[in-house]
Amino acid sequence: MSHILHRRRLLALAGGLIACPAWAAAPPNGRLNFDVFRGGERIGEHEMSFARSGEVTSVSCQAAMKFKIGPLGVEYSHEARELWKDGVFQGLETSSRTNSKRESVSAERTSGGVAIDAGSGPKTAPAQISPLSHWNSAVLDGPLFNPQNGKILKVTVSRTAPLLPGQGATPTGARWSLRGAAEIDDWYDASGVWTALRGRLPDRSIMEYRRV
User: Fold this and answer.
1) Is 79 in contact with 95 (CB distance < 8 Å)?
2) What is the band of 94 on the pLDDT scale with cuts at 50, 70, 90?
3) What is the DSSP letter of 120?
4) CA torsion angle 136 181 36 116 (round to 10)
5) pLDDT grade for 54, boundaries at 50, 70 and 90
6) What stretch of H or E contains 194?
7) Three-state SS at 108
8) What's the mean pLDDT in 93-103?
9) How confident is the model at residue 195 (pLDDT cuts 50, 70, 90)?
10) Is 161 within 8 Å of 112 (Cβ atoms)?
């Protein structure tokens, strides 16, 4: 019941949203599209869309991947919807599937912090917490949680030289490196728009996002 009520609140808050390029972390066309590679082989895609009405911004995400680990096939999908107000995280709903395993998370800002529910009842996280959905570099130096399973991430985050994978020159922009529970590098252009990702999966293989 809490998931249903939370979804209704999100929909009510997002009602009437229109495409808007004004927010710095959103691209001019309100969309981000990536091809996803593992070990140099294309395995799927990750798409995001941004919409804004007044102070409220809605971010929608869809990702789908298919690959093998040894002889075993893996099919993964993820859908999410985030709401932000004045650049502050307000709530989300996510649904993920890895083969037959399904996960869902809801989160909502309250007077006492952010209530995160991964199916076993809401747990309150610090008010400064945000989901690690990568597109918004402004939140990377604060507490983060995994939008797929709702767990608070134990990572250290640093801003480093923005050298892109395979490039011999340093482009204008920023690169953020996460280490600990995750090993991920994210790149952003001079305007703050997410442009690339490189991460190490649990089997030690390398996954890359290439913007298209």
Assistant:
1) yes
2) very high
3) S
4) -50
5) confident
6) strand 194-200
7) strand
8) 97
9) very high
10) no
State the Cα–Cα distance between residues 157 and 162, nearest whole angstrom.
14
Q: What is the pLDDT of residues 58-78, one digit of tens each?
A: 999 999 999 998 899 999 999
Tokens found for residue 47: 């798409």
At residue 172, does pLDDT exceed 70? no
Residue 63 makes CB contacts below 8 A (sequence gap 6+) with: 36, 44, 45, 46, 47, 76, 77, 78, 79
Map 43-82 to HEC letters: EEEEEEEEEEECCEEEEEEEEEEEEEECCEEEEEEEEEEE
Give the integer Cα–Cα distance in Å for 63 and 69.
19
Exposed, middle or buried, 23 (CB in 10 Å: 0-12/13-18/19+)? middle
Domain range list for the chain: 2-211
Q: Residue 75 and residue 203: Cα distance in Å, rounded?
A: 16
pTM assigned to the model = 0.83
